[in-house]
Amino acid sequence: MSITIPAPADFHVHLRQGAISELIVPHVRKGGFDLAYVMPNLKPPVTSTEQALKYKADLERIDPNVEYLMTLYLSPELTPEEIKKASAAGVVGVKSYPRGVTTNSDGGIESYETYYPIFAAMEEVGMVLNLHGEVPSDASANIHVLNAEVQFLPHLFKIHEAFPKLRIVLEHATTRAAIEAVKKCGPTVGCTITAHHLALIVDDWAGQSWNFCKPVAKYPDDRSALQDVIKEGHPRFFLGSDSAPHPPEAKSTSSPTHACAAGVYTSPILLPFVAELLESFGALDNLEGFVSSNGRNFYQRPFSSQKVGRESVTLKKIAPRKVDEAYALGDHKLVPFWAGKEISWELA
Asked: What range(s) does the Amidohydrolase-related domain occupy (predicted)?
């Protein structure tokens, strides 16, 4: 049994910076993808057109056979003029991180209304607003990692109402409430779903650092909602892996004063793993839409406009094999999600 997918595209991926990128970037293609929508939360964050273009050049030097769609980090430094400049240079989107909710988000935003002139400029030039859909935890208001996404949804509705022509992506949805919220919005609002959130629930990361990510996996009913919208074939829901590599020593350990790193690394196994998951809940027929056509249609990125990459990728069914325990290059080592567990699909 084999399946051929036209031009799979990952619309949310972290490729890091510096020497470790030499290990990470080639895993985009290894996992079956030739288009990567690249997150800007570096140190320092990518806040200007010049930074985005330099970062893109760095990635292309490592692997020129992938199309990298670049983003800016929503910050006080951004201006409407910079948005227009970035759009003209080919930068595709702007990523919003609420302050302190995930890796390298200390410079995140606290008030969306402050950025309405930015959103207006983005709406004018056709850039995409990518929303990390959580609010910061606040014990006094009973806000925590399990309800932070639900508490964020009024912000989504408010921004969409103010800018109905602005394309918005609610990133890495984890709750039934988020799925229903996106469905209620107009055609300019889309949503990414990760592979790992199709596999995990809260029990899987409680006490297991290798499954810990932000937003955290939620309840079984929430996971069912993610799976069901893929089975439904809804055109505004598509893959964004949120593949987020961390060194094993940061991922596997914590201390009384420092938590383990949040994020799981799926890039090296991504397309076979997604096929495995969709097959497990009866959605394999919708694999092409989820990993290719839905996202490409929303982002207006048909393969015909892509200058590099494979026109299609073929998966074949195999006897179950274990995922590699680790990947290494020089002094750098990374452990993939699902390490040591079995997958019964591989790239042909």
From this structure: 71-173
Instruction: Give yes or no for a contact between 270 and 10, defined as CB atoms under 8 angstroms apart.
Output: yes
For the residues of 178-198, what is the DSSP string, one character each? HHHHHHHS-TTEEEEE-SHHH
Strand pairing category for 327-329 and 332-334: antiparallel
Say which DSSP state 217 is in: P
Lookup: tokens for 138 = 């606040």
CB 294 within 8 A of CB 235: yes
Identify the pLDDT of residue 102: 56
DSSP letters along 11-46, please?
EEE---SGGGHHHHTHHHHHTT-SEEEE----SS--
Distance of CA 77 to the CA centre of its chain: 24
What CA–CA distance (Å, rounded) separates 220 from 174?
Answer: 10
d(CA 318, CA 49): 44
The per-residue pLDDT for range 229-267, each reduced to its tens digit, is: 999 999 999 999 999 999 999 999 888 998 999 999 999
Give the β-pairing of 2-6 and 312-322: antiparallel
Beginning with the edge strand found earlier in the chain, give each strand of the sheet holding 10-13 in spatial order. Answer: 10-13, 35-38, 67-69
CA distance readout (Å), 321 to 1, 91, 179, 336: 16, 39, 33, 15
* Model confidence pLDDT, tens digit, residues 141-183: 999 999 999 999 999 999 999 999 999 999 999 999 999 999 9
Query: How many other C-beta atoms lie within 10 A of the C-beta of residue 165?
Result: 10
Three-class secondary structure of residue 290 per DSSP: helix
Give this prediction's pTM.
Answer: 0.96
pLDDT value at 132 more than 80: yes
CA distances from 339 to 4, 77, 219, 266, 323 (A): 25, 40, 23, 10, 5
